[in-house]
Amino acid sequence: MSAYQTLSIDREGPLAVVTIRREQALNALSSQVMAELTAAVAELDADAAVRVAVVTGAGKAFVAGADIAEMKDLGPAQAQAFAEAGGRLGDALEASPKVWIAAVNGFALGGGCELAMACDFIYASEKARFGQPEVKLGVIPGFGGTQRLARRVGVAKAKELCVTGDLITAADALRIGLADAVVAPEALLPTVRELAGRIAANGPLAVAAAKRCIHLGQSMTLAESLALEQREFGALFATADQKEGMTAFLGKRAAQFTGS
Ligand code: CO8
What we know:
Blueprint: E1 7-12, E2 15-20, H1 31-45, E3 52-57, E4 61-63, H2 68-71, H3 76-95, E5 99-104, E6 107-109, H4 111-118, E7 121-125, E8 129-131, H5 145-153, H6 155-164, E9 167-169, H7 170-175, E10 181-183, H8 188-200, H9 204-217, H10 222-235, H11 240-250
Helix pairs in contact: 1-3, 3-4, 4-5, 5-6, 9-10
Bound molecules: octanoyl-coenzyme A.
Octanoyl-coenzyme A binds near residues 64, 65 and 67.
């Protein structure tokens, strides 16, 4: 039996699909959902068979935000603690050696948009709607929205979304660089599976190192981040996968990576 009450995890070879299942509240992020998602990241991080993980939502929403009913009566310290729990989940996704894809099937609002932005890729259905409507509730994004959005789409667009609270279509999200791809609803999971397959064919340690360099490099000077890349490049030459990858290329055969 699943250890999770608010989500399910389905394994399909190297792909794990994490589905948030609180359909009656449009998959709103309660503290239980946040805790279970954080536990799911740790579980999948520890599973060598999993190379790529997808987060999606059951029903018509991806995630319609943090749970407004749960937040309504919080005091400042409790609200900060709630936001910090979101911070831990975002950190876990970015630090994960796996590649995380948000498959945004519907509303990705507030904490839902923020959850998607903490993933490595955002693939959206044509039905998806994105937004940071927190100001309409008298608050601001607290799960990275003001920061990851500005890094993704630029300061001016992030300000526009965060101060108007406007919802935008998937097509507009693609145009401003918030979504990485937009496909028909029925094509969303097949497209994500195809992407996952291409990633899973590569060396796992190399994929993790590339993600780590790009992520950590964002908060370094260029000189520091280039030095990090050089160290990580060198370190991969201690792995069996590097020998296998290069031997396979020269032998004109497909590489069989083992993640070692
Ligand atoms: N929290 C709690 N319940 C919700 C939420 C939510 N975010 N969103 C929807 N629901 C509930 C509704 O209350 C409703 O419940 P009920 O059936 O019991 O009345 C049910 O889900 C269905 O919703 P609607 O009837 O409203 O469905 P519609 O199709 O008419 O509308 C919308 C869909 C437009 C998505 C609408 O539900 C909506 O505007 N939802 C709220 C969106 C929002 O403001 N999100 C931001 C929340 S604040 C936030 O995310 C802050 C994040 C920072 C902290 C994070 C730390 C983890």
